[in-house]
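Friendly challenge for the regulars: who can give me the structure tokens for this chain first? No prize, just bragging rights.
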Amino acid sequence: MDLIFLGTSSGAPTKTRNVSGVALLEGSGKGWYLVDCGEATQHQLLHTPLTLHGLRAIFITHVHGDHCYGLPGLLASAGMARRQEPLDIIAPAALEHWIRSTLTMSQSWLPYELRFHASETFRGWRNPHVHVDATPLSHRVPSWGYGFTEAQADPRLDTDKLDHDGIPRGPLWGQLAKGQTVEYEGRALRGEDYLLSTRPARRIVIAGDNDRPELLREACQGAHVLVHEATYTQPVAAAGKSEFGHSTAAQVGAFAQGAGIPNLVLTHFSARYQSIPGRGLSIEDIRAEAGASYNGNLMLAEDLLRLSLDKDGILKPA
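First reply, four minutes later:
Bragging rights claimed.
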């Protein structure tokens, strides 16, 4: 499972950072998922190997523009690329009306179906590759974090169950081994029901804007990676910015340490933190503040950074 960061700035873009967007790639490398779609996300995709045909689903954490203003353009571009596969969008309910109205107003007729799922009533989403759950967070508007868990980790056929259910050996077994759904004697047999994982499933949690990291405690049980905003350092928050519903690097680092998360990736940085040390506030201030309480594998995201989570749960640059 890989992550590609399409935007790592908070609020507005900078010369080196676009606004929020993260791509999560399946372990098979065939499909991917988008978490948040700030303005110009589709431009960032042009610098990656990802295509809009391989996009399985979109997950929006909340309605603020830096997390969703890129949606209409991306959806229209997918249509112009002749995408045919239906696309699931998991997002706050208000976004469905906005998206459909915008597409209608601009006469952007899509050749594929949009299937919206409201975050407010979301009970999980799954396909043969991943299972996704959501956790409500704390922000100025309702916000969510999404957890992605491998559906099958290096699966093998459950031959005992196949024999017990009277499924004859042969082509059916081969199709089920690929996770396909097949018909047998009037029954629909799902491949995932006849597969066993041979190792622990990898899990990645990607949070939206949130000033209470502890709300993710349950979601992070067994997680290998947490991607979380660290908009400010503690001194800046104490000077009056904490009312904006964001976390400090110190908060996130302390939470990740207490929750036993082995890999922590920080993102969504205020533009006040410069990449060059010595010119006022530095991005290294965020690293140092989080690292003071977190001793796991700490990374600070940059635009177009690609990280790979291997089968042993180790996260490193791809």
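The chain has a mean pLDDT of 94. Residues 156-195 form one domain. Your move, everyone else.
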